[in-house]
Amino acid sequence: MKTVEIYTTPTCPYCLAAKRLLTKKGIAFTEIDVSRDPALRVAMTERARGRRSVPQIFIDGTPVGGSDDIHLLDHQGKLDPMLA
Length: 84
What we know:
Elements: E1 4-8, H1 13-24, E2 30-33, H2 38-47, E3 56-59, E4 62-65, H3 67-75, H4 79-83
Parallel strand pairs: 1-2
Antiparallel strand pairs: 1-3, 3-4
């Protein structure tokens, strides 16, 4: 199983949707709350190639985007192979 990290804020509905999808698939993930630590948000932005919105999701260190991106990958049947 690959390492999954998700940068979030507590009140973000897109973060909740992404976490719900990962949980539904039985995927363990590390959640990083950037709401109270500007340095974490800067680090997230650098890792996410300039994207500042949350969530930002990484699989084995590779940025895959946000909630819409991960749901699209799932719909296209591409998410499961990325997580295998």
